[in-house]
Structures are given as C-alpha cells and as structure tokens.
Amino acid sequence: MASSPVTMMKMKVNDCSPPSTTAARLLPLFRRHQIHFRSSVGPLQNPCFPRTIITHASRSSFSSSSVITASMTTEASAKVIDGKKIAKDVRDEIAAEISLMKDSISVVPGLAVILVGDRKDSATYVRNKKKACEAVGIKSYEVCLREDSTEEEVLKYISGFNDDPMVHGILVQLPLPSHMNEQNILNAVRIEKDVDGFHPLNIGRLAMRGREPLFVPCTPKGCIELLHRYNVEIKGKRAVVVGRSNIVGMPAALLLQREDATVSIVHSRTKKPEEITRQADIIISAVGQPNMVRGSWIKPGAVIIDVGINPVEDATNPRGYRLVGDVCFEEASKVASAITPVPGGVGPMTIAMLLSNTLLSAKRTYNY
Ligand SMILES: Nc1nc2c(c(=O)[nH]1)N[C@@H](CN(C=O)c1ccc(C(=O)N[C@@H](CCC(=O)O)C(=O)O)cc1)CN2
Question: What number is the ipTM of this complex?
Fold first, then answer.
C-alpha cells in the first residue's frame, strides 16, 4: 500500500508518457469536462506526468507503454466509486450492530494493535484505527514498541493478547522493522483473533475450495465490498490483479476466484502486462507504482479498483507531496465504466473492514 514519506526517495519518473512530443500530442485528451473530476488540474499540470516523483525504495520493476488507443475519448465517463462514503456506511452499520450486541449480551468487542518502530505512515494508520474503533464502540488496546525492540518482546505481547478474553482481534501493523521475522510474528496470532487475516491458516483456507477462512484480509475484502455495493457483477467475468503481495494482490486474486471470476495475476516478471489487463472486465491494481496502469491498458467499460497509495512530489501541496494511485486516473476514467479514486477509494475501506472483522470475531466468540 502506501509508501512512507519517511522512507521515500526521489527518482525521475519513467512510467507515464515523457512530457515532450508524446505528451504534446496527448494534451487535448486531458481536458477536464465532467463532474467526476474533483480537482481542477489542467492539461499542463496533468497528474499522470509528474516530472519528479517520490516513491518507495522497494519500487517494482514493471515496464509500461504510453500508447493511447482510439477507444479513449476526451470525456471522463467513468463513475467514481466513493470508498469514503461506502466506508462510512459500513462503519454506521457496525456501530448499530455493536450497540445492539452490548444491549443484549453486554459484550464490547476489543481490538489490540501492536505498532513497532517510528514510521510516520504506520503511526497515522494506527491512530486512525484507534479513532475508528472509538467511533463504533470497539475498545482498542494499543502497544507501541521502539524500532530496536526484539522479536521476543513482540511475541510476548501477542501471547498476552491471545490469552485475554477482552481482546477479540489482534493486529501487528506492517511493515515491521527489517530485523524482525514477519512470518514468525504473524504466525503467533491465534487464528480466532487474526482480524488481519494474514495467518497462513486463514490464507490457506482462503485458497482452498470448500474451506472457509475465519477472516479475510481487510484491503482485498474492502475491494470486493466496493464491487458488491456498486452492483458490479463478478461471476463469470475476467479479472486481472496487478501485483502479488501477501497483503493485497494474492488474497484479492483468491477472493475474486471465490466469486467465480476468471482470474489472472500480472506481476513484475510478466511480459507485456498491458496485453493481459486489456482483456479484463475488472482490474485490481496493488503494485505501489504511481500511474503505472495507463488508459491504453484498459478495456473500454472495465471496472478499476486502484489499491495503490503513492506519494508524488507536489510543491503546491502543504505536505510537499500528494497521493496518486497505480492507475493513471485521468486516462483511465475516460475508458473505464467505474473507477476508485486515490485518495478516497480503497484506503478508507481497509479500516472499515478491520472493524467488521473485529465485530465478526466477537460475535463468533459468543455465538451471537
Ligand atoms: N497489519 C496491517 N498492516 C498494514 C495494512 C493492513 O491492512 N494491516 N494495510 C496498510 C496500511 N493501512 C492500514 O493498516 C491503511 C492504508 C491506507 C488507508 C487510507 O485510508 N488511506 C487514505 C489516504 C490516507 C492519507 O491521506 O495518507 C486513502 O486512500 O484515501 C488506511 C489504512 C499497510 N499496513
């Protein structure tokens, strides 16, 4: 998902069209016509062509083409999938359920969050999780450990929360400092409390037909929830997932398959990824590379779920950067039938789904 501004590095962009002749030819394509566009970015400030970008050091090595097909129009026609609004709806539904649960069985769901280190973005996500818990009536327990803490310390807290009956969900904020073994730590969370759905048993069950995971990872679950709530049919459709991370790409592909889509995964070693994405009715992109998926990669009418949250340098922004997705929104919104924005698309769904998993866990514990 998002790269940390703390660990970002500057590099020259090489993935959207070069700003010279090709861009000049394309400029008329980027006129802003429709209400879907929330910013007032004009052609010369097209967000798909930042001259310098800031991105994470562990950038993937996809190549991209800059060919624009005839199917692209000058109009933005895609419906913008409002993740912020859907996440609020979900949180309201959860709050109502928790209130009923409290009244009828006097149980308040509990979520324990473990944060290790001082990444700014992780600290923000943890703070937002805590706030979201408070707003819906989930009790949150938080442990913040120093960057140089040992794996044993983390395991000790996990063990305590595993045994605590007030805690129904445990999550360890990722990424962990590099000296820690992520696998050891995630494996230590009791699967009944694994509200992130990252335990190998939960992932294994997700992958198997006829088996049910206790929890599904929050971001992929949020992607599917958006498709459901916007009545996007998945069954029988061709879906392409861009990226194969354990947190998003891989579980998203498994979930789409469980929904009876025919699924392909495109990754950093895929040759001509655009030839595969162009066949997709649904694209979920989770690769962490700004504007990598171009309009020319998209079949007209496809639905685009953009999981990428990439900071790019922007001197006009008080933060010095702004967030863009993996998908070139300006181009894609002229070809797709629906698309998630960044920010305000999948991101807010991640925390909403975490609350949903925590409630699910508490309900399961009490057979409620
Ligand atoms: N243990 C986990 N670690 C991480 C997860 C996770 O699901 N479990 N996911 C990400 C980070 N993440 C939650 O932890 C997260 C990322 C993004 C957002 C979000 O709402 N993004 C906003 C933009 C926020 C901004 O302005 O900076 C958006 O897209 O609109 C929420 C949660 C990695 N680690």
Answer: 0.98
